[in-house]
Amino acid sequence: MDKQQGLTALIESAWEELNSPDTGRRDLCLDVVSDVLETGRLAQSDAERAVERLVAVALSDEGYAVQESALHAVCTASTHYELPYRVVEPLAAGVDGFEPVLLGYVLSILGCTHDQAALPIVERFLHHPHSEVRQDASEAVTELRWHRESAQDKTA
Description:
single chain; mainly alpha; 8 helices
């Protein structure tokens, strides 16, 4: 078994444990997935599948700790993999359901996609009542606009 297969097996084992009714155990499983994503050694398709599952957990789990761990793992993945918007799009659809502390993760994730489809969603939060959310939205907008301008410069 090569390293990539070993990492994939580790993630699969963590997913199985994620069915535990114990929030602490589920949180630990997500930490394992985050650690594997942090290696940057998964195949792009495996990383995308892991992120899709993490997004589903972040949107469905009612426990704050588990949601935070899932979103943290997606942020970790976004620093090591180019995540297509389609993979994290459910976060955009469910963005209004997150409390302000978790919105920072979501806005950062959307910004890291570099997809202009995320821009109107992120821009909505530039006037949020919480200053931290406004700051996170501003950084994500800057990232999205910078990428758009950079892409335009390459085609000019």
